[in-house]
Amino acid sequence: MPPDAPDAKEIPWVKLAGLVVLLVAGAVLVMSGMDVRALVDRSMALIRGASPAGFFAGMALLPAMGVPVLTFLLTAGPLWGERLGMGNVVLFSLLALIVNFTLTYVLARWTFRPLLTQLITRLGYKMPRAEEGDAASLIVIMRMTTGIPYCVQNYLLGLAEVPFGKYFLLTVLLSLPQSAAMVVFGDALMHGKGKTLLTVAGLLVALVAAAHLVRKHYGRKQTPA
Question: What pTM was computed for the model?
Answer without folding.
Answer: 0.75
